[in-house]
């Protein structure tokens, strides 16, 4: 009985770790994609009439 409880606890722990890792990877890819998409704009200066 104890071995089944340990196996269940390890399975749950690995599922939580997998979900956490996937969440971090998705955030990293999203941040990289946004930087790539908006990186060409840079800092915009206000337009001044001459």
Question: Outline, from the CA principal axes?
Answer: rod-shaped
Q: What gyration radius follows from the Cα positions, in whole Å? A: 23 Å
Number of helices: 1
Distance between the termini: 83 Å
The residue-averaged pLDDT reads 82
SSE ordering: H
Helical proportion?
over 70%
Explain what you see.
The protein is mostly helical and about 50 residues long. It contains one helix and no strands. It has one helix spanning about 1-40. The protein is rod-shaped.
Structure at a glance:
By secondary structure, the chain is an all-alpha fold.
Summary keywords:
mainly alpha, 1 helix, 74% helix, rod-shaped
List the helices and strands and how they pair.
Layout lengths: L1 H37 L12
């Amino acid at each position: 009985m104890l071995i089944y409880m340990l196996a269940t606890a390890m399975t749950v722990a690995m599922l939580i770790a997998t979900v956490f890792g996937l969440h971090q990877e998705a955030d990293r890819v999203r941040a990289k994609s946004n930087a790539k998409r908006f990186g060409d704009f840079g800092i915009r200066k206000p337009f001044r009439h001459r």
